[in-house]
Design a protein that fits this description.
This protein is of the alpha/beta class. It has one domain: 3-Layer(aba) Sandwich (Rossmann fold), CATH 3.40.50.1820. It contains ten helices and nine strands. The protein has a nine-stranded mixed β-sheet, sandwiched between helices. Strand 8, helix 8 and strand 9 form a beta-alpha-beta unit. Helix 3 packs antiparallel against helix 4. The longest helix is centred in the first third of the chain and has 30 residues. The chain is globular.
Length: 272
Amino acid sequence: MNKSQINRNSKVKTSILKRALCLLTFVVAQQLAAQPLTLKDTTSPSSMVELTVLDQFKLSAKLHLGSATAGGVLLLHDCKNTSKDFQGLYSALVKQDLFVLALDLRGFGASQNQDYSDKSLRIKADNIVSYQGQLATLMMHWQNDVYLAYQYLQGAMKNKQGISVVTSGCSSNQAIYLAQKTALKSVVMLSPELSVDDKEQFKHLADMPIYLLSAKYLTEAMLNAQELFEWSGDSHSVLQTFKGNDSSVQLLKKQTYLNNNLSIWLKSTLVE
């Protein structure tokens, strides 16, 4: 088998894995929807909180309590970082006096155990295809985890204000899934990684404000951002691109003003 055939086979396997993930995620979400959430809460303005889902897995998140009438933002990282890597954006949102919940997704950061750990998957995987398959299995839980995190943030706000979500890279599809079952006010997608099926589902959400940001030479993310922006029918939607191939975290750290821009835009979409 020549190199070209190997590459084609690898792409086919990756495509199959993505489709399997979409199907399995739907099944899991149907089985686990509306599960109760056990919380370790605090009344301080900004603190770590622990969310225990029905399977007893503990999710770690950082919560900031905003002003009494403020909206909320759920902040999700990507598969190469954790919530701590988005501290600049978290701080900018706090300065806007918004409620903020920065979640470590299952398998990452402080949301890891012996059964769910991205680090362990990387070490144990025989090759990239094996790792992607195991990561896809882990990510099956995200849709339910994120929904429950949304519910927690909603409860912590103790008001009827709206909630927006910020995603990055591999967590981008979580914004679409969440918007299908909640009344999200707006979405931010940083360097979005989306399947064809994800983008088809987004078409039903095209009236929602969306802020898309990507580096030009992250080709797949850039094309996804352009495609979603063209479909968006809301006048508040934004597409922002940068030269180079910096990841979303690198862009936010190098172009620090972006944190402020994003937080101001999010607050504007949360105003009734």
